[in-house]
Amino acid sequence: ASCVQYRLVVRDVNTLQIRQLYTCLDQIQYIEWSSDSLFVLCAMYKRGVVQVWSLEQPDWHCKIDEGSAGLVASCWSPDGRHILNTTEFHLRITVWSLCTKSVSYIKYPKACQQGIAFTKDGRYMAVAERRDCKDFISIFVCSDWQLLRHFDTETQDLFGIEWAPNGCVLAAWDTCLEYKILLYSLDGRLLSTFRAYEWSLGIKSIAWSASSQFLAIGSYDEKVRILNHVTWKKITEFEHPATIANTKTIVYKEVEKSPSVETERLSFPPTRALASSLFSTQSKYDISQVPVSLQYIKPVADRANPKMGIGMLAFSPDNCFLATKNDNIPNAVWIWDIQKLKLFVVLEQLCTIQCFQWDPRQPRLAVCTGNSKVYLWSPAGCVSVQVPVEGDFQIVSLSWHSSGDSVVLLSKDNFCVCYLEREEV
């Protein structure tokens, strides 16, 4: 699904043919599929309205109007039959049922980076709350929206919450002004508190491994710390230095090369295909000899949200690798071997890393850097792929299909789908 101002366009993944076309009341600012792909919601925050469309029954549609309360966020519940709307100033969350048309209210949700978290099985929801100048977490049962647990957290300014994939542990972390991460059980018991240091900027990002055995914490001191699920103590920490000295680490360096064109083919004026190949630069990877010095940017110390520390990290679906990005070294992706707890590969790009995401089915990482190329890494090697589109197509984000057979590449105004051929076994 994609939106073009007022219109929602639903296409077939394999052929990109238009399956449905819907017209909304106003310019669409957010879209989201239900978990079973039968419905899609379109949020129009300026109007305070959400419209829901059905793929099975194109004539049916639903309109939810929050009225004077306004709207700042909207999302599906895991069952795909309830919509959670957050009103302006985070006064409340309204839970709308598509089946019974009933409405439930959750008061005092906190305005933070990640204030709502569902367990992977869809049974429970945790909500970060702020009341009487204190932080709380409420856990609800998603089947009937009944409150299961309500407890206060030992945080100064709760920044985010996230469930472990097995749904047994909830991680809650404090604002970057204080390094503190708290781990709670489903019944609200505090299992452990982890603090790496004090009096300096703290946690910037976290990621659970798919098996729930490891919790990776990225911080402003340019390190990733790995906690284990038995004692919740640190088992190792990964540093991100500007010089790679270990001879066992493979460093792939992106290099550009201008395509060679035979002079016999040159014509004036040049054909469109020839012109695009003349002015487009191709890139490939070379393996660098260690030691390698990476481009290091010293952050501006007197500004808010300094570009420093571990801004992105993600585990591979098989728990074997962890990909990280240190914002001080913006052109590099670090890939760590989790079984050996060592640095395995560094990808040194020519441009700043915009986004990376693991293939959901195998250890294959897709990276984009704001140009018209997509980069793929797997243990077998690394490749740079030029997207064959006319004009300026700068990839700023990407998203894998759940099968791992294709990946959507997004620029500011356009998108394209990259299809990957499966290897025959």
UniProtKB/TrEMBL annotation:
InterPro entries: Centrosome-WD_assoc, WD40/YVTN_repeat-like_dom_sf, WD40_rpt. This is WD repeat-containing protein WRAP73. GO terms for cellular component: microtubule organizing center; MWP complex. SUPFAM superfamilies: Tricorn protease domain 2. It comes from the Eukaryota.
